[in-house]
């Protein structure tokens, strides 16, 4: 059966399995990815089926994981590395930014670095510090990297395979609070383009643009707004580098209002870039300034405060109201 | 006989009783001095600073390594000499070109020719090299046209050559990063079932970087066929080795579970021997090894610094007496391995190389402006496409309008 209902976690697992089945050069590397199947079990059962040579438990050293993955890619492999949690990626940041992102350009295109760095990211799981962050902008700012995040099981399944097939390094952010959300996955479908935004709910009065964990919140906000007679369109951006500005522009030219929502801090975040570019592109279409809803310019708070920190239904609806009031 | 003071001794080994004996020996050395790294280095040496071959009979501890160069003929020795002379000439030419404003920066290898040529000539074509930004001699051994190395220092590219043409990776500026790439590549070699090996070059300064420790550990854990070749040239810009380590560098390998060895880095024959030894082990599946080539950077770290500000003239003079090129020349002359005609021919070849380097660098064109946008991504990127088009339009706006407009 081609269409199956599964969780995002299961979809990612199936996606990895298919990629490894298809291409013997695909490897999985990371801490606890073998017998344990990863702390979120995304790689569950893969070592059993593909062996320790292809599903590689590594020493606890993020720079080492990414640095050796670069070497394996230079040898012709396609490593998919798992960083256990968002806040742990920083020891590897040097390797990702100074090496992985730039090597293709430095070699004048003669070598390719098809490395995928999977990072479970974002909050709302009640974790301790460094387990709930959203550092996507720090990667999107770096030329040479592509940065994507699925919001549902179908995208999780297809986008991960597309990321593995890409000859560019891809930072693949997985919305960890949505791992257990289920959705339909058509494993025979022809997937859309990896970096295209998608309208997930049609609307006429305002566009909510989000990605990863915030898409669901925005869909709930759109449903609530509909009860008040407001027609809100929801756009799943899916990719933060590149950003599908054409897709956003098309939606904004229709609705004339845009609110961008993400968990990451608002300051210099993805929403800031979108606000600036959409203002340039759609100045005469806009009925209101582009608004942003997201995290504060503060360390991610202790878990008991994360509901206040993270954009929820009410903060999104407040921004919708403010936009419509212009 | 002066061999005694710099006598080659058995390196520390990581297995069995030899390790215990080695550890005892290391303690004895450490006890003799306040700073273990100040101690007269215990290093493998096959050619003394005076150009005399170390007699295996009187120094049986070097027999294992001497065996690895038993096949080296007089002609081979002349070849090694030629490599060192031409590399030094190229390096000197690049330094001069920097002074003339043709290069933005140059990292000279002056003094390290033996370490680089000895190790570089130990490699097979199918081995893979991960250099720092100073491995001009290794690049020479790999057949990389030396003028290719100058592009990044002139500012026309960040590397530019195809690493897979000569199995010589791009120069790496971030200190120590390439040791992990080498380790990963070696993991791939092992997965492929190939018997080639990988060599990672780095310096004493890089040995303080976490990436180097991680590379040691990954390579040990996965038993990867990688040789770590550290050129301990005594200085990391202005910081002496005392600021990098408390124990001799080669001893670190033992803590990671593979052998470390210190070699006279100014002895091209010894460098060839120990690198062959380490590569052989790697090929046989015996995993990584660390070679510490004890040498000296005769010039500045790069053309940007001034070594007279941070090190004593006496120190430099003492190392000049160990010059790797003079050492082999003395040997060739004393042994009748080369005559004056050889040296004259080489001098002419050296002149020609210098001339070619000057001409190629001065003729090196600036890259096309639009190269900024090239090869940022393999699969393309919408933002890069957009900015490329915008910038092209902006540049086109400066072009003179056609007549009649």
Describe this structure in words.
- The complex is a heterodimer of chains A (326) and B (405).
- Chain A is α/β, with parallel strands linked by helices and 326 residues long.
- Helix content of chain A is 36%, strand content 21%.
- Chain A is built from twelve helices and 14 strands.
- Chain A has a seven-stranded mixed β-sheet, with helices on both faces. In chain A, strands 9-11-10-13-14 form a five-stranded mixed β-sheet, with helices on both faces. Chain A has a two-stranded antiparallel ribbon with strand order 1-8.
- The radius of gyration of chain A is 19 Å and the shape is globular.
- The mean pLDDT of chain A is 97.
- Chain B has 405 residues and is of the alpha/beta class.
- In chain B, strands 1-2-3-7-6 form a five-stranded parallel β-sheet, sandwiched between helices.
- In chain B, strand 6 (260-264), helix 11 (268-283) and strand 7 (289-294) form a beta-alpha-beta unit.
- The model of chain B is unreliable at 1-39 (pLDDT under 50).
Short description:
The complex is a heterodimer of chains A (326) and B (405). Chain A has 326 residues and is α/β, with parallel strands linked by helices. Chain A has helices spanning 8-22, 46-50, 62-74, 93-100, 103-106, 136-140, 153-165, 214-227, 245-255, 270-282, 306-309, 313-324, and strands at 3-7, 26-30, 55-57, 78-82, 116-121, 146-148, 170-175, 182-186, 198-201, 206-210, 232-236, 239-241, 258-265, 291-295.
